[in-house]
Design a protein that fits this description.
CATH class of the largest domain: Mainly Beta
CATH architecture of the largest domain: Ribbon
Structural class: alpha+beta
Number of domains: 2
Radius of gyration: 25 Å
Strand order of the largest sheet: 2-1-3-4-9-5-6-7-8
CATH topology of the largest domain: Umud Fragment, subunit A
Number of helices: 5
Distance between the termini: 51 Å
Largest sheet: 9 strands, mixed
Strand content: 35-45%
């Protein structure tokens, strides 16, 4: 790269604002303890603030090349966004499983064996559930019992039966008496 490719002034300032998700120069100034006069000088003199550009790249994960020159992609191929996965979110409300927007998760939380992960929430708890795994075995499952959905701990018992339990519920039934929606791979609980 040649030094003349570096863009200072307003262009680099705008890319930094974009990288941080800021809408005002004051937000950038507050973050890096810079006066509005300093930022105005960058624009007037078409100055390249190298130290702030590097800090921005480190803080946000944007490509240093893109930040400095406006060329190339905003993120390198190994950037955090490439390590994220968007899951469909479902809420359990009054026994109903209701689709409710999306949820972004770091792929490292997902096992390679999970083929159809969904994010399911109820109250203070949430779960990542694989909707493709429906053959009931010992573990935690999203089940529909007479049309009501909930998360249950399941244990297989002789006679093709299961012991089903969750907070306040504990019963036994035949496997055929429940509809399995998916296997819980991860449980998340809020502590307030």
């Amino acid at each position: 790269m040649k030094l003349e490719e570096l863009q200072g002034g307003k262009a680099v300032l705008q890319r930094m604002l974009d990288a941080y998700g800021f809408t005002m120069q004051k937000q950038l100034g507050d973050m890096h303890e810079l006066s509005s006069g300093t930022i105005s000088t960058w624009i007037r003199r078409d100055y390249f603030p190298g130290d702030v550009v590097v800090a921005c790249a480190l803080d946000t994960g944007v490509s240093l090349r893109w930040l400095a020159t406006g060329k190339g992609s905003k993120y390198d191929t190994d950037h955090t966004q490439a390590k994220m996965k968007t899951l469909t979110r479902f809420d359990i409300f009054a026994g109903n499983l209701v689709e409710n927007d999306k949820w972004i998760v770091d792929k490292s939380l997902l096992s390679d064996t999970v083929t159809s992960p969904k994010y399911v929430c109820k109250g203070q708890n949430s779960w990542i559930v694989d909707f493709d795994t429906t053959d009931i075995s010992n573990g935690r499952w999203l089940l529909s019992i007479d049309g009501d959905h909930d998360i249950y701990d399941v244990a297989r018992i002789p006679g093709n039966k299961i012991k089903v339990s969750n907070s306040g519920t504990d019963f036994q039934c035949a496997v055929s008496e429940v509809e399995c929606i998916g296997l819980v791979h991860l449980t998340l609980s809020r502590t307030n």
